[in-house]
């Protein structure tokens, strides 16, 4: 119990931890509003206010977040040329998303012209969606690369068991186990990131090109929770 409390404290000390918690509030309240809107309008309105308040507070809390994407664009580490090229539009899209999200927030609270909110939200969602597409592609390539490395380790192990590679020592076997464990942990994290990115991409498409599927409260609610809980899992202290 104490360990869980300690992890929760660490989780909520992170900016992303708070964001995922408030995002959970936002989309749970959206689903609650949709569910009881016809039967209990007064309570549904309260949930709607909670949803709007949570969404605006998340925008305020993300002030300056676009600098993370700018920093990643500047550094752009890694030796794999394909991944480095994918990182450019991915991080640029995310930077545009967070930057214009500031103006969306300011317009919606009335600090600047409220009529700008829709335009700023469109630009923000467009940049976000472009970024997510490239993040998803990069994660799938890294998952594929990890599977190849894992298969190579497995083939080496089979060769040893069949007596074809008798020179492999226990130290190498331990290194193989450690690497396999890291590959599998990385794969789970990347699958969580992919699930979150796909969910957020659908939410972005609802803003860019409104349609009955993406804009349905159930679709948005489920996608929002998938994104929030995937991020929760990735940010939870190990």
From TrEMBL:
Principal localisation: membrane
Keywords in alphabetical order: Membrane, Peroxisome, Peroxisome biogenesis, Transmembrane, Transmembrane helix
Membrane topology: Multi-pass membrane protein
GO-annotated cellular components: peroxisomal membrane
Domain of life: Eukaryota
Subcellular location: Peroxisome membrane
Transmembrane spans: 81-100, 120-143
Function description: Involved in peroxisomal proliferation. Promotes peroxisomal duplication, aggregation or elongation without fission.
Protein name, entry field: Peroxisomal membrane protein 11B
